[in-house]
Design brief:
By secondary structure, the chain is an alpha/beta fold. It is built from 8 helices and 8 strands; from the N terminus they run E-H-E-H-E-H-E-E-H-H-H-E-H-E-H-E.
Length: about 180
């Protein structure tokens, strides 16, 4: 599977490593450009690219950036992408620590619904409730005692199934947590 990752912080880097280890073709981008990602390329096996390139030909794109930065993504980022492209949102809203107040979320809109509005694509919410170090180091084979479970929320059953399979591949149980409107619970 071809996976693009937008955001090369702790979660993005951990996912790049885990997905590449499972044989997926992984491309990763950040706001500073591919030249700033040489260490991450070396550490993860992912190819550093521009943000637009993460989407080209991808089966899955992971958006793992601070919530408030979603409006800064290129407006045409997903232009021409097929409807079958699965977009994963890993974000959490931290108004006091990082994001400042985001009006729509403050008025009760679930975080991922707000992200959908910003990027113009439906998303599947996943990987937002686990530390990066745990993603990197705590995956276990299916059926293993103590295997960690991760919730997955989204409105498209096929897209959620793709995400749940990826979660299983990297060593975690996936739990269907319902629709995207319920993703904040």
């Amino acid at each position: 599977m071809k996976i693009g990752i937008i955001g090369a912080g702790n979660i993005g880097s951990a996912l790049a490593l885990r997905f590449a280890e499972r044989g997926h073709e992984v491309q990763i981008a950040n706001s500073r450009g591919p030249d700033s990602l040489a260490d991450i390329e070396r550490q993860t096996g992912a190819k550093a690219v521009e943000a637009h390139d993460t989407v080209k030909g991808a089966d899955v794109v992971v958006v793992t950036i601070p919530q408030a930065k979603a409006p800064n993504l290129p407006k045409d980022l997903f232009k021409g992408a097929p409807a079958s492209l699965v977009v994963i949102d890993t974000g959490n809203y931290y108004p006091r620590q990082r994001d400042s107040a985001i009006d729509g979320i403050e008025k009760g809109m679930p975080e991922s619904c707000w992200v959908e509005q910003q990027i113009g694509r439906p998303v599947v919410k996943a990987f937002n409730n686990i530390y990066a170090a745990h993603l990197k180091n705590n995956g276990k084979p299916a059926g293993a005692k103590g295997r960690i479970a991760l919730p997955v929320s989204g409105d498209d059953a096929k897209a959620k199934a793709v995400v749940m399979k990826l979660i299983d591949e990297i060593g975690f149980d996936a739990v269907d947590a319902g629709k995207i409107d319920d993703s904040w619970r």
